[in-house]
């Protein structure tokens, strides 16, 4: 699988230059319209890809569309996903 949001060369360069990378999910769904398992899949899949590419997992996350902070999303993102 390829995530269009990941650009190996620019992501590696950003990290090497000291910039922060943030998660934005794997395929950009509206987080209020997917279930718990899909939320976890979205976050973990992108985290695993970023770990392989730049050697780290993003500390920050911005929700797709700038929306989706319902209780389910809030609980998942403020606790461990695993």
Secondary structure elements and pairings:
Layout: H1 8-16, E1 22-23, H2 36-54, E2 60-61, H3 71-78
Parallel strand pairs: 1-2
Account of the protein in words:
With 82 residues, the protein is mostly helical. It has a single domain (8-78), classed as TIM Barrel, CATH 3.20.20.370. It is built from 3 helices and 2 strands. The protein has helices at 8-16, 36-54, 71-78; strands spanning 22-23, 60-61. Strands 1-2 form a two-stranded parallel ribbon. Strand 1 (22-23), helix 2 (36-54) and strand 2 form a beta-alpha-beta unit. The radius of gyration is 13 Å and the shape is elongated. The model has no long low-confidence stretch (mean pLDDT 78).
Summarize the model shown.
It is built from three helices and two strands; from the N terminus they run αβαβα.
Task: State the CATH topology.
Answer: TIM Barrel
Rough outline: elongated
Count the strands? Answer: 2
Strand order of the largest sheet: 1-2
User: Which superfamily, in CATH terms, is the homologous superfamily?
Assistant: Glycoside hydrolase/deacetylase
Q: On the 0-100 scale, what is the average pLDDT?
A: 78
**Discrete helix count:** 3
What is the H/E string? HEHEH
CATH architectural name: Alpha-Beta Barrel
Structural class: mainly alpha
Contiguous low-pLDDT stretches (5 residues minimum) are: none
Largest sheet descriptor: 2 strands, parallel
Helical residue percent band: 40-55%
Specify Rg, calculated over alpha carbons: 13 Å
